[in-house]
Structure formats: C-alpha cells, structure tokens
Amino acid sequence: MDSSEKMNSITYMDPVLYKAAQKGNIGPFENYQTRLDQLLTPDENTILHVYLRNQSSEPGFTDFVDKILERCPPLLFQANKRGETPLHLAARYGHSNAVKVLIDRAKALPVDPESGVTEAKKMLRMTNEEQDTALHEAARHRRSNVVEILTKEDPEFSYSANVHGETPLYIAASSWGQEKVIDEILTNCISVDYGGPNGRTALHAASKTGDHGRILRLISETARKLLEKENKLTKTTDENGWSPLHYGAYYDWSARTVKVLLEYDASAAYIAETEKKRTALHIAAIQGHVDTVKEIVSRWPACCELVDNRGWNALHYAVASKDIEVFVRCLEIPELARLGTKKDDKGNTPFHLIAALALKDQNWKPVLLHREGIYGLNKQKLSTMDIYEGNFAEIQVINPL
C-alpha cells in the first residue's frame, strides 16, 4: 500500500471515540463497524496508544486493552509515526498490568515456523524510530516493575544500543536511583550489553556523580554491581581514552566511587588518554579532588611518575587547579611533594607555574617562597624568581581540561 492509499484508508478518530479511548470506555467500540486499526490520530496513534498514554496511574483493570485486542488483534503490533507500539507506551508509563496483557496476547499467537521465535519475543524486540525497545523505555523512565517483566520474558536477548549508542543498562546506570532497574537487568539477562555512546560503557556512566552524599553512595554501589558481573569494564576506554576511573576522578570528590574501581583493578591508575596522555590522577588533581588523589596514590604510588603529553605531572595539575588549598594539600602527600622539582617539556617545574600565577595573584607568593631557588632554570634559562619579577616571555597557566 503506497502513502496515498494508506491515507485513504485512515479514518481519523472521532472526538467521541478519542475521549472513550482516553477513559478506557469500551462501549462505543463494541458495535463499531469499521476496523479498529484504521482509527488513528494524525500521529497514527491507535486507540490503544491513546488509552495507555492517558492513564495517570497504573490501571487497576486491563479489560479495555484485553477486549480491544480481542476485537482487533493487529493492534498488538501496530506502531505510530514514531515507531512506538502499545508495548513501548505501556513500558514508558509503567503500566505493568497492561504489559502482562500485551505479552499474554502475543504468546497466544502461533510461533513463526521459519525463525522459531514466538510472537511475544518479536514484540519485545521491536524498536521505534530511535531503535529503542520497550526495555529502553522502561529503563529510561525508571519502571523497575516493567523491567522485571520484560527481562524475565526474554532473558536470552542482548538488548543492543539505540541510535544514540545507549543500551538499556547504560541508560539505567546514567542516573541515580536506578539500582532496582540495574539489578533486574543484571540478574535476569543471560547476555548483557554494557555499551554506551562514544565508546563508553555502563561503568563509565556509573562513575559520574554529583555532590550529594546519598547519590555518591548509590553510584558507588552501582559500580560495584557492574564490576561483580563484568570486572574487565575497568579497562574499557571511550573514544577519548577515558576509563571509568577517569570519570570517577573527575566527578567524585569524596573518592567513594574511585575506591570501588581501584578495589577491582588498581592498575587502572596507569591508563592514560590516547592523545593528551592524562591519567585519572591528573584529572583528580586539577579538579581539586584531593581525597581522590590520596586514594589513587595510596594504592599505586608509582603512577605519580606518569606525565601528560607536555610533561606535566600531577603536581603541575594541582597548580593548574588555581586553588592554593588544593596545591598545599597535595604537597602534603610525600609522593607528590617529590614532584616539585620535576620539569615539563619546557623545563618548568610546578613552582615555575606558581611564579607565573603569583605575579598576578599575590596569595600564591608564600607558596612560591617556600623553597626558593631549588627549582633550577627552565629552557628559557629563567628561574622562578625571574618569572615572578616579570623578566620573561609570559607563561600561561591554562586549565588543560
């Protein structure tokens, strides 16, 4: 059927029928003579779509869904313009009773003799225009009750990424409060896809967090659950070369998530970006996450020797945070204090950078004078005091993130 024939076959939904579908009133449809699958809104929503998206809470009874499907079975698989089936909407809005009815109706249909796949599994695996399955929708909207039903019905299926690169597990791990959803996916699915956009995984997503204590606790618990299922995720890097530990160092000022990641694989502290060669220690230092810096150094002190593509070490990065308290606290860590005389590719120690800062911000002067004269000359043959007194081609201390 071409588009013009399709348009001619559509009977746009009468307002009376639309309102009946909204309320789940079966009466006006019982004696309706035209095929119910031809009753559509401009977005090609069927009466089931209209019903499911207009229930403000979980419907206690599902007679409407059941009776409509009894009269018109094709509605079970009929999608709207966005490719959404009734199951997509039932999953999105958390209507678990409707989800069960839809699945039971599909189970009653004959198995495809060629593929051997049941109609129920075909429905569960159907995707909309963004390649989201019903499980993607349930995970995104935190419908753990629906996630449990869907994953138990089709545990063998590995739900792949949508057009944005998101798998259901990645979606669940991307926001806090999703531990029940994550549990259901990890427990019920035999083959789990951990992928996310830009080469990231669900562990990358779980390593991001805010600054609220409860959120941090939930995120670290999520990371632990993912690692118990698949511990090699600690070494997976995204397209920028960031590991989950990089993200933990960037976001987690309390070191809670970083601690979990290092418990499973402390060697992750050695993973450096592909291009800029920054490690998680560099990221933690410039973010001012001193507790995270201490956690990383305590578990793998030799990683302090790693420098980025300019030769900057972690103490250079502590200076680049432009926070005196952060730098002083980092200087109290013996392994980092020893980096004070280490030079980058231009011959600048961290204290050469401080001299450039102190020229404009006198609050840095006491730090600069702490051990005056032991830092040597850079490749321009300038000492820290030469720089502080302004006798130089200006050094820029730029935040490299």
From TrEMBL:
The keyword Membrane does not apply. It comes from the Eukaryota. PROSITE patterns: ANK_REP_REGION (PS50297), ANK_REPEAT (PS50088). Coiled coil: none annotated. Signal peptide: none annotated. ANK repeats lie at residues 82-114. Keywords: ANK repeat. This is Ankyrin repeat family protein.
